[in-house]
Amino acid sequence: MLVSASVLYAQSTVTGYVYDDANGNGERDRREQGVAGVAVSNGIQVAATDADGRYQLPIGDDNIIFVVKPAGYTVPVDENNLPKFYYIHKPNGSPTLKYGGVEATGPLPKSVDFPLVKKQEPVEFTALIFGDPQPYTDEDMENFNRAVVGEVKGIQHIAFGLSLGDLVGDNLSMHRPYLKTTAQIGVPWYNLMGNHDMDYDAVADSLADETFEASVGPANYSFNYGNAHFIILDDILYPDPRDEKGYWGGFRKSQLDFVENDLKYVDKDKLVVLAFHIPLLHEEEGSFRNADRQRLFDLLREYPNVFSMSAHTHLQRQNFYGAEDGWHGDRPFHEYNAGTTSGDWYSGELNEQGVPVSTMRDGTPKGYAFLTINDNQYTVDYKVVGQPKDIQIKLFHPKVVAQGRGTQSGIFANFFMGYKDDKVEYRIDDGEWKPMNHIEAPDPEFVRLLYRWDTTEALMPGRRPSNAVVSTHLWRGNIPTNLPVGEHRIEVRATDLFGRTFIQQSSYRLADPL
């Protein structure tokens, strides 16, 4: 649909047209005009179309040519709602791999053309964000389908969706069932590659995405929507260049060259949104190569409005980078490390649907996010699967406490989207609001659920969750015992990074001491 191929021949450059597909048939008809000033890339170099919509780029024997969708246009989608904005050029196909990779594409077409269809794009829009669906089995895929996709199927007023890697769990033959599952949501769906989406039998990092490319599409690309520019990157180095074993977070030079060339066509007033799988956060380069992060920061320095998203950790946290981390923008660089739709890898007790609750190790319930962009500003909302959208805080506290007797127990608030500098307060009954203290500790509610598995005398359905880890969004307040005997209401009020306030209520009882 995307390629005019009347004449095929070998060449060292690729040329073609980006055109206004007025009738939407995916073919460049005689009267359809080219679109000028549209960026097209070979994965490293980027060129803009001329007045006739024509571009020209160097090409080798392993390139994906793609159009950088401009704002105000849409691109075709396939039967799985995957945007079709690219042409794979691998004349000899992929090397021999367990999951096949890309079949030989043959000689390069004379003209590689890309259709665009005009579509009004508001400057305010919302995208649906999934972290790590990661099904390892058909049962996992069905749980993903029932609990997550079933909840958002047919959702309205969503511009597009994006999964932040680990679409599947190592079995790359599950990519296609995954795509059929997300297709039900009914919106164009973008994807990026995670470490569980790779060809582990690849001998070089540049070849680790061959099967991903065949099934899903490019691992590195960009597009525009409204006043935002999205850059999607594979940030897994495999094999790890330090010891040729496992993987490491980072980028190849060619990927960062693409970012540099891509940004030449991005206005400074746009919001630049980056998405990759492994968080940029590291200590002494343990999980991410610092030189790559530094070059990325340097390339983005002149852009005042920048935001990034990652997944991978099966936790949820807000990461901010400043001068001490090598970021020298006017404001800290914000990375949202998103919670996952698989939660704690489909573990935990079964809910009323028979689906594992999969609460993550930091106490964040499994869920998904909404990224809302208005001009060049953004907000992020987290939605707990199966719960009303206003459930943003989970409380833990004793149910009953002895009246008048001191206690070391407390009121704990897990504010799922929280950051340590957020304002979190509590009050008892209609008393004075008091600040809660941010602490770094395991979520006691998650620990309580975990210990059910270790103290039960009969096997429970499902699979024991992972052990608890320190939560970065946990607050504590003292529990008053100097009030009258009886029931007392707890209210917790939290204000997020974007100035929005959420309230969660509960209660405890004071009883006469025995």
UniProtKB/TrEMBL annotation:
Domain Calcineurin-like phosphoesterase: 128-314
Family annotation (InterPro entries): Calcineurin-like_PHP, Ig-like_fold, Metallo-depent_PP-like, Metallophos_C, Metallophos_N, STPP_CPPED1
Classification of source organism: Bacteria, Pseudomonadati, Bacteroidota, Sphingobacteriia, Sphingobacteriales
Name of the protein: Calcineurin-like phosphoesterase
Ranges for domain Calcineurin-like phosphoesterase C-terminal: 335-502
Lineage: superkingdom: Bacteria
One Pfam family of this chain: Metallophos
A GO molecular-function annotation: hydrolase activity
Domain Calcineurin-like phosphoesterase N-terminal: start-end pairs: 29-92
